[in-house]
Specification:
It contains seven helices and two strands, in the order E-H-E-H-H-H-H-H-H. The chain is mostly helical. It has a two-stranded antiparallel ribbon.
Length: 189
């Protein structure tokens, strides 16, 4: 994708968005996201080369974060398993924040977005407040999805890593990355 500087892509599904200007984003024709493709898309100039290009060029923030989590796990250093878990869940939280913003826009209630954000303590769907707002705004009964149990278990693991200093191994980190990956794939549908 080098050389395609200013090419818009959906911030959720990554599909190219044609005919869109940065000032007037159109809904994605694949997933109907209203977030547009410019503000959250990372494009690298042609002059930048090296291993980072494969991780970030033409990707959304959640995609980049999930790739970073996989990269950390691929280092075969058990000390990075906790960090990989945290980064995988950060990808989910960024995607939920974007999804909620899109839902406010779709429902024509953007004026409530900042007020609701002030009430929330983050965007972790394992938090009942966040989950309730997400399901009511989006209509997505995400808790009925097959990955939900793994996602909740992984979210609790992530909280214990951050708050209690839990040390996790490779199998736990792999489970967390899989849960986050399934979660993000569902949001992109």
């Amino acid at each position: 994708m080098t050389g395609e500087k200013n090419r818009a892509a959906c911030t959720f599904c990554g599909q190219p968005i044609t005919g869109e200007s940065p000032e007037q984003p159109n809904p994605c024709e694949y997933c109907s996201s209203l977030s547009g493709g410019y503000p959250h898309l990372v494009m690298l100039p042609e002059e930048i080369t090296g291993s980072a290009v494969g991780y970030v060029e033409g990707s959304t923030y959640p995609q980049i974060l999930l790739r970073i989590a996989r990269f950390l796990l691929g280092k075969n250093d058990d000390k990075l398993c906790g960090l990989a878990t945290i980064v995988a869940h950060l990808a989910c939280e960024v995607a939920i924040e974007r999804s909620l913003s899109d839902s406010f826009t779709r429902k024509g209630i953007q004026s409530l977005e900042d007020t609701v954000a002030d009430v929330l303590n983050g965007y972790n769907l394992a938090n009942e407040k966040v989950w309730n707002i997400y399901t009511r705004l989006s209509g997505d009964e995400i808790q009925d999805q097959p990955f939900w149990g793994n996602f909740i278990r992984s979210a609790k693991r992530r909280d214990n890593i951050i708050r209690k200093g839990l040390i996790v191994g490779r199998a736990d980190a792999e489970e967390s990355i899989k849960a986050a990956s399934d979660f993000l794939a569902h949001l992109a549908e």
